Amino acid sequence: MLKLQDIAKPVSGQEEGPREATQDSIVRTIEPGLEYRSPMLSVLKRLRRRRGRTRKLAQRKSTAPGVDNITGRILSLVHRVCPSMLTELYNCCVEEGSVPVRWKRARVVLLKKAVKPDGEPSSYKPICLLNVVGKVFEAILVGRLEVHIESRGGLSPNQHGFTKGKSTNDAVLKLRQEILPAINFPSEMFCLAVSLDISNAFNSIGWTEVMAALDALEVPIYLRRIFGDYFQGRTAETRAGKSSADVRVTCGVPQGSVVGPLLWNIAYDKVLRLELPAGAKILGFADDTMILVSGVTISELERKANEALGAVSEEIRKIGLALAVNKTEAVLFTNKYKFATPAVMLEDHPLELKQQMKYLGIVVDRRLSYKEHIA
Q1: Which residues, other chains included, contact 57 with Cβ-Cβ below 8 Å and sequence gap of 6+?
Q2: Which of 175-181's residues contact partners 24+ apart within 8 Å by CB, and which partners?
Q3: How many Å apart are CA 263 and CA 203, to the nearest integer?
Q4: What is the pLDDT of residues 246-275, one digit of tens each?
Q5: Which of 138, 2, 3, 4 lies closest to 60, judged by CA?
Q6: Which of 45, 213, 323, 355 pairs with 252 at a CA distance of 20 to 30 A?
Q7: Distance between CA 335 and CA 180 in Å, rounded?
Q8: Which residues are within 8 A (CB) of 89 and not within 5 positions of it... i.e. 6 or more apart?
Q9: pLDDT at 239 (0 to 100)
Q10: C-alpha–C-alpha distance, residues 239 and 126, integer Å
Q11: At residue 289, what are phi and psi to the nearest 5 degrees?
């Protein structure tokens, strides 16, 4: 049987062009779990051969290559010549419960966010370019995870991100559907929407918390063993000019990986399933978290909002994440003209109520007119 150590050496290719001198410091700021490199650990079961599925996955020719410069087109040609190679390799990985070290090595590319200042860490989004052979294996694992999760009733319906059949349109529509019945006749209540901002969410989620979530879902042991090794010995290559450095990654789900989005949803599911006070609801789109609270009076709204925000904040902290309170936005929706301003607190900081907020790219004003968004 093909062994992990028999994997071919990386194909040499053209080196990347020079990067900005600020890249290394930026990457270290956005990736809080970076340490110096250490060896990987090894951890058992069998993967049934699915030649058809493997063939389709291998033919994703447009996939960007990782550090080894092996592209999807190269992989497709290899699979055409020797179709059993990948299935034998993946069977070997599952039997040994381990992931080859080269598949855990990423090349970090920084994508600048629109209308953001140069040189600021928060202005860049790190994307991990990973080994394409490893990404095909991740796609197989995703299929197995999805089947198991569905057999247990699925993840929280409050999650709209990275979810089949749902999009940002559904999340924005859901927001509107929750607010209008609360503020219109006959209810005529107050409705508070608080959009939480999680600091560096995908790069900060703890691996212990992800594994605990897999345990709670009673994911098959062979999959848990694979993911236990998947999170060991991960490294990233950063470049600054002509120099490069290898760093050890100790937390986060790789942005650019195939399995990362699903692992995020699994780990964050417990937050979206929190039992909140009557009249309080939670709406999620990946890491974008919206808390909606309705109340007949301002004092009732204030009490429920503070209780709900306290519970959500605590649960987010438990999975190794932190809220950026200064980036959190809150809007009070009502058809009433005279009312006192509720004192809403988040982690002992008062929240300023605004006339509008930006949610998933849509400007939502307190009248739900969307005039500012259309303008």
Answers
A1: 136, 139, 140
A2: 175/283, 175/290, 175/292, 175/359, 175/364, 176/368, 178/281, 178/283, 178/292, 179/292, 179/333, 179/368, 180/368
A3: 12
A4: 889 999 998 889 999 999 999 999 999 999
A5: 138
A6: 45
A7: 10
A8: 2, 7, 133
A9: 73
A10: 13
A11: -120, 125
Cα–Cα distance between 78 and 58 in angstroms, integer?
Answer: 9
* Helices 51-58/132-151 angle, 10° precision: 130
Q: How far apart are CA 34 and CA 32, in angstroms?
A: 6
Question: What pLDDT digit, counting tens, does each position of 162-178 carry?
Answer: 999 999 999 999 999 99
In contact, 128 and 108? CB cutoff 8 Å: yes
**Residue 264, number of CB atoms within 10 A of its CB:** 23
Render the burial of 288-324: b for 16+ CB within 10 Å, e for the rest.
bbbbbbbbeebebbbebbbebbebbbebbeebbbebe
Q: Taking Cα atoms as reference points, which of 291, 293, 268, 296 lies closest to residue 279? A: 293
CA 285 to chain centre: 10
Asked whether residue 40 carries a pLDDT value surpassing 50, the answer given is no
Q: How far is CA 84 from the centre of its chain?
A: 33
Secondary structure class of 291 (helix, strand, coil): strand
CA 256 to chain centre: 10
What would the pLDDT profile of 271-293 be if each residue is shown by its tens digit?
999 999 999 999 999 999 999 99
Residue type, 276: L
Other CB atoms within a 10 A radius of the CB of residue 60 amount to 17
Q: How many CB atoms lie within 10 A of CB 14?
A: 6
Quote the crossing angle between the two packed helices 72-81 and 84-96, to the nearest 10°: 100
Taking only Cα atoms into account, the Rg of the chain, rounded to an integer number of angstroms, comes to: 23
Q: How many CA atoms lie within 13 A of 231 on its CB side?
A: 22
Global confidence as pTM: 0.81
The residue type of 310 is G
Tell me: cis bond preceding 186? Omega within 30 of 0 counts: yes
